[in-house]
Amino acid sequence: MDMSVGLYLLGAFLFLICFSIPIAVAIALSSLAIMYTILPGDIAFMTAGQKLITGIDSFSLLAIPFFILAGNIMNRGGIATRLVDFAKIVVGRLPGALSHVNVLANMLFGSVSGSAVAAAAAVGKTLEPELEKEGYDKSFSTAVNAASCPAGLLIPPSNSLIVFSVVSGGTSIAALFIAGYVPGILMGLSCMLVAYLIARKKGYSSKGEALTSKQKFAITLRALPSLGLVIVVIGGIIGGIFTATEGACIAVLYSFALALCYRNLNISTLRTICVETAEITGIMLFLIGASTIMSWAMAFTGLPNMISDWMLSVSDNPIIIFIMMNLILLVVGMFMDLTPAVLIFTPIFMPIATHLGMHPIHFAMMMIFNLCIGIATPPVGTALFVSCSVSGAKIENVIKSILPFCAVLIATLMMITFIPELSLALPRLFGLIQ
Question: pLDDT tens-digit profile of 223-263?
């Protein structure tokens, strides 16, 4: 097979993206067009249809709509306020206290909701009045929110890790989940370090009243049920009590019961939650199915092998190759959302990484951490735009403020890339990998 056909495939995809065609549609159309040129028409359409269906015919993927539903229930169930109050207890007396509260609340809320955008919106709306009252620069506080909200995509339960498990050929979801804790926490700590240094320079300090032990205890009790979701779901998955899909169903029941107890759920809200869940699920599953067509087309045209040969011809030094991968993914993340990037580039880069001795779990952490940075960077950074819309800050000012965060996050990415045990120590401790 002439591998130039593979380049035409990528060219057709980029051409459609330039004309603002939705990514899932661009993936499907470009793949179908290339298949039509190398196969008889009836076989091309039949193969594309089969791959579209088989791509989403996975028990593991059932976890995604249930985690989305649980996250949507929590978004509207009064969870954010309780987690923000709890975060104030933990980091509320540091310089730039509210910025640290923002980071920690994003980590907590992102982990229970599984959505960076939801965390940016919910936590941003909750904290914005207080940040403005205490005189924080709007572009700085917006940058903190945008840079830290993707941490929840690494801290389980994470739909991104489930997608990676499916597209990588069945990497253990339990191992991916437990491996995500250290990189996710490091992402949050990196943001807190930058926020601390900037807060000291600008003289931001906490102006709130010190809480009594009784108040701290009461706030912790209010937050514990929300935090309990992670313990119940992740503990059950890692302990082998239930699968990730069954854990997602339990997450729905848990979050629904919690929202009822908080009395923040009614019939109208529930209807909206179900509609939003169906819309997001439909988009994600079509995207996964379309990406399966592209993966087959790429494999058929030999594109992954061509890219692998090209990269290895540049250097056979793993350090150079991993830096090249990270640079490519950083650029990709600036223009493409995390899920389609994982679906498209995992089949290309993972064989190269494993050939050079990188464990699939380690590769997953490197890749998703990398693409999380893209969520907070222009021109397509969804978390950046959501954070700006919540705070009302001008995006050009926020871009200047977010650059130090991006620099430190890239440095942390290098640590994740070249220190495998940051990703592999916990899965090994729990006996999930050798």
Answer: 888 778 778 888 888 788 888 888 889 988 988 888 888 77
Please name which of 41, 16, 36, 35 lies closest in space to residue 26, comparing C-alpha atoms. Answer: 16
Phi, psi (rounded to 5 degrees) for 212: -80, 165
Q: Which residues of 349-380 are buried (b: 16+ CB within 10 A; e: fewer)?
A: bbebbeebebbbbbbbbbbbbbbbbbbbbeee
Specify if 52 maps to a domain.
yes
Say if 102 falls within a structural domain: yes
pTM of the model: 0.86
The answer as to whether 267 is a domain residue is yes
125-136 pLDDT, tens digit each: 878 888 888 788
Task: Give CA–CA dist 361/365, Å, rounded.
Answer: 6
- Token pair belonging to 65: 């709509």
Q: What is the DSSP letter of 212?
A: P
Task: Report whether the peptide linkage leading into residue 318 is cis, meaning its omega lies within 30 degrees of zero.
Answer: no
Q: How far apart are the first and last CA of the chain?
A: 38
Strand blocks (E) in 196-346: none
- Residue 60 is assigned to a structural domain of this protein: yes
Task: Quote the number of domains for the chain.
Answer: 1
Tokens 């998955």 found at: 237
- Quick one: how far is CA 322 from the chain centroid? 21
Taking CB atoms within 8 Å and a gap of at least 24, the contacts of 242-245 are 243/59, 243/60, 243/63, 243/173, 244/60, 244/63, 244/157, 244/162, 244/173, 244/174, 244/177, 245/59, 245/60, 245/62, 245/63, 245/66
CA dihedral in degrees (53, 154, 110, 234; nearest 10)?
A: 80
| Beta carbons of 103 and 199 less than 8 angstroms apart | no
CA distance 163 to 160: 5
Show the domain range for 243. 4-429
> How wide is the angle at C-alpha 43 spanned by C-alphas 38 and 49, nearest 5°?
110
The number of residues making up the chain comes to 434
